[in-house]
Design a protein that fits this description.
binds zinc ion; 2 domains; alpha/beta; 13 helices; GMP Synthetase, Chain A, domain 3; twelve-stranded mixed beta sheet; Rossmann fold
Length: 427
Amino acid sequence: MLQKIIILFYYVKTKYFHNFTDRASLEKWQKSKIKKFIAKVVGKSPFYKNYFKNLQTLPPEEWPSIDKKIMMENFDDFNTAGIKLKNSLEVAIKAEEDRDFTPKLGKYSVGLSSGTSGIRGVFLVSPLEQAKWCGTILAKMLPGSIFGKQKIAFFLRANNNLYESVKSSRIKFRFFDLKQDLKSNLNELDKFQPDILIAPPNMLNIISDAQEKHDIQISPAKIVSVADVLYEDIKNKLENIFQQKIHQVYQATEGFIACTCKHGNLHLNEDALSVRKKYLDEDSGRFIPIITDFNRTTQPIINYELNDILVEEPMKCPCGSPFTVIKKIEGRCDDILYYEDKEGKRHIVFPDFIIRTILKYIPKAEDFLFTQTDVDNAVLSLPYMDECGELLKALKEVIPINITVETLQRSSDLSLKQKRVSRKFNP
Ligand SMILES: [Zn+2]
């Protein structure tokens, strides 16, 4: 019962009391929030106690950032609940193997991140944090009121206590396991008739194909893409088939980072976290977010550098929110490509340049993979082999290295992320 009251409290707070109208008042509010948050958690985490020893006099923007590697290496000292990495891993891995997502460690829910960057992240969430998260996400993503009846279909690689907490007598929540048989999942979805459909973009794409072929007939009021990058061409296709905006939730192990407003524009959740922007180039607005999450006290996320490249949209959103608008989530920093010019100078190439070039020549490709294997070589994997001389010429203008072409062979495991650009070496 207490859990439900907290959910409701955060729902109301987020929906009705976080209506910042200008950037200045938002930043002022965030500053005081950071101060209070740090005063509350630092003493409880041996890692941060040490980290902050020499930072007291500096403003937050000058603190060194931490990242997943540092967090995982210091896991036992990092969290404020005295939980050991060894025990957390055992619980999380066993849950994933058994496809049974209810086990906890004491009162804490344990989750695993997919580890696309090579390091698997383990995250701990207390019942209070879970309730806060739940209230916040419901306030931001439910198309109607929390008191209305609605059915939510959720396709994910692994269920989690966090997601199960959304359930109530009015909100019917159905988890679809991406590792289960696709055909039976589609049949069940058709029977369930969700009001809200939440799935990774590759699954949404399959659902849209089934809908177009009349294999299924669903009419969700809201569609939300999660857990992977939603590329522009796929987004357009989905919007066409379902005749509505496709919403996005950008949720990482480290926090609920961004979600779309009613206009379909992706905003950073700057009422739940503060985001410093580490710009990657001068004028494109590409940056790496460095976040401080005000709601995470079990595993405090302070000045934490994510591994993602975001692109800022300078235009203000018509919804009036002063929260930063994200034009797109471009992918992982690990997938920025490199080449050397004749003088041996290194240049970087953002994944988006490669994707846009490929789509210019094969606009309906949908799935492809460009993998840079070393600084001089890359492999372009295409869904079908075609005459692609012109495309290769154009790609070599973007990244002047050797490119070989092969047929794309993706695993049929829908729970895997579907990268389009990947780098397989350390620069
Ligand atoms: Zn907006």
